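ESCALATION

Customer reports they have been waiting on this structure for their group meeting. Please prioritize. Original submission:
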Amino acid sequence: LVHERSFYTVGLGPRPAHKDHLITALITAMAVTPFTHTLKSTMHRFYRWSLQRAFFCQGLDRSWGDVAQNPFCPFLLFNATITDYLKPGDTVPLSEISFSPLHVGGQRTGYLRAISTRSLSRCVALSGAAIDAFIVGKKNQRKYRFFMEFLSLNMGDFMVFNTKRHTWIPAHQETGWAADLTHCQLQVPAILFQELIYGLLTLAM
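Update from on-call: job pushed to the front of the queue and completed.
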């Protein structure tokens, strides 16, 4: 590679064709990196939309605040699983939590007051995200994780648990496309680092 680059730099050799493909791939990666979460949550969005169309009245989403204010609605309690939440000494990367109109959390994570504007269909989809828990909990191997990420087989999604640590996140920004923006803001250091690496690789070509 050094020999090839040296001859190309001084003009003694043709420009390698594969470098154009590498530069195109790196520029594409730089453009796609900020939207990684949106692309990764494609299956979650479809699963959430399917549940909403099948079980919600007129296919319209509701919030936990709507449930709490309706005196005819029963007390809803959904169980879910958090993956890759580990404390010192833990060996199993799974933690159980629950969603209700009053609180959200579990024994290992602690409990917080529920956000009234949080989407009900999103919590239902998180409760039924069986693929993530099965692969991470039962088949916790690199090849299974690779194919789950590569094929975007993530039925679950991220959730800002302790909003007190991020007081700049309004409650209404945990639903819809605003959740993607929130995730992007939380991942700014990692995104900038990846963009830096891709940029240096592109310049090295």
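Sent to customer with the following note: The beta strands are 78-83, 94-99, 103-106, 110-113.
Escalation resolved.
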